[in-house]
Amino acid sequence: GMAVDANILIAERIREERESGKTAKAAISAGYHRAFAAILDSNVTIFITAMILLIFGTGPIKGFAVTLGLGQIASMFSSLTVTRVVLDFLAHRNPNLNLKMMKWIGVTHIHFLRGRYLAYGFSLLTLILGVSSFFLRGQENFGVEFTGGTSVQLGFKNAVDSGAFRKSLERQGVSDPTLQHYGSASENQFLIKSQRPDTREIEKAAEAIAGKDYEILRVDEVGPAVSEDLKKKALWALFWTSLGILIYLGFRFEMKFAWAAVAALLHDILFTFGVYALSGREISLSTVAALLTIMGYSVNDTIVIFDRVRENLKVMRHKPFSEIVEVSLNQSFSRTIFTSMNVLFGAFALLLLGGGGIQDFAFTLCVGLSVGIYSTIFVASALVVDWSRSPKLKQIQAE
Question: What is the model's pTM?
Answer without folding.
Answer: 0.70
